[in-house]
UniProtKB/TrEMBL annotation:
One of its GO terms (biological process) is endosomal transport. This is AAA ATPase central domain protein. Residues 61-208 form the AAA+ ATPase domain. InterPro entries: AAA+_ATPase (IPR003593), ATPase_AAA_core (IPR003959), MT-severing_AAA_ATPase (IPR050304), P-loop_NTPase (IPR027417). It comes from the Bacteria. It comes from Gloeothece citriformis (strain PCC 7424). GO terms for molecular function: ATP binding; ATP hydrolysis activity. Gene3D superfamilies: P-loop containing nucleotide triphosphate hydrolases.
Amino acid sequence: MPSYPQENSGLLQIPHAEIQKRIFGHKLFGLDSLQECLFRFCKAVITADKSRIQDFIFYDLVPSILLYGPPNTGKTTLCHLLFDRLKKEVTNEVNFYTIDIGQMLDPALGQSSRNLEKAFEDLRKVCSSGSSAFLVIDELDSFCMSRSRTQEHDAIRRAMTTLILELDRLHPSSTRKLILFGITNVHNLIDTAVVRRFSLKHSVDASLSWNDFCAYIEYLSKPINYVFQEHDLKQLYDGYKRRELKSGDIKAFYKEILIDVICKDEEVSIKDKLFSLFSEGFSTNEHLIKTYGEFVDDRQRISNR
Ligand SMILES: Nc1ncnc2c1ncn2[C@@H]1O[C@H](COP(=O)(O)OP(=O)(O)OP(=O)(O)O)[C@@H](O)[C@H]1O
Ligand SMILES: [Mg+2]
């Protein structure tokens, strides 16, 4: 993967060509208004004139956006698509950065904090030279859980404190060219001090309307040349609703179908396979309920001791 580490702080620049490879042919369904709103906000930030910056300062509005929602709902893809659109439609002078949290976190005393400080320092330098930086911190929960303050390893606790300080340093007048996205699928477990510092907080968990669902199935069925009848689609939509499937679950079903089409000797009935997957295939939501229930039970057991 052609990404470029910068002095081991964990900051990585990912080239536009690499982002384009990751999202090749990708389209998100049921998230149009969120995508449009975030695109307009990022564009307004990057192209802000003096009077718009004064508005930002007046309302303390910094370009920090928290995206939260269950796994498999398109959060990471949304950031990639947004960046690609900004790059194509607004300015070529914007680059994509992310923080490799495994690399940033370092057990040596104070090193995680220094790494994070260094990452932000480097980004500020990039911005002061006229470019814009689109920073995505994915899996924010890996160092910003509320229990980190009291229970976690020192390195994690200090990294979270540094992030809070860095979020405070994002000032509308000085850092308008640094757009920060934080992503998590457990925002209710993230420390409130972190959550409240994000100017925008958006849930990403599309519940597909009938029309969006049909469009999504048509889009996914195209490469395997399959067209569903309306009454079959209705049955699939019932399964989607009943099992509260996530959009990414449906895409994963098509992955299985493609494998069958490629690998099986006998003719595969795409319709039968998809029906069976919609009723028994992996559901992120069902898995989440099961594991989260176990997680809560464990915590209760510990606190009752
Ligand atoms: N609303 C959607 N419409 C179409 N495809 C979607 C949608 N949501 C997710 N997908 C697809 O599902 C897959 C998983 O998406 P993605 O990795 O962006 O989810 P995520 O929310 O970041 O998950 P996690 O929280 O586990 O990191 C991708 O291939 C993406 O294109
Ligand atoms: Mg993700």
